[in-house]
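Memo to structure team: turn this sequence into structure tokens by end of day. - J.P.
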Amino acid sequence: MNQERIYNILLGPHVSEKSSVLAEEANQVVFRVARDASKDEIRQAVEQLFDVKVTGVQTALVKGKTKNFGRLRGRRSDWKKAYVALEAGQEIDFLGGE
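Reply from structure team:
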């Protein structure tokens, strides 16, 4: 897989209460990913970018919410997230701290 595709697959980490609990208890990381990305592409991208070993990938399509803007109705875009399970003893530190 070429380097440009890797950066187009992983859009960024998804930070929430649920993702924080998963990181601590299940050694999983949650990413926002491109809607056309396959599980195998996500696995390869994470392994190459962060130099970790991935044991599993689960994906979920998140439907965009309907919002009101004054009298107008709008809709947020649908997006995809990936739950990436890492091997025991491996972790990804997004903060870069000690």
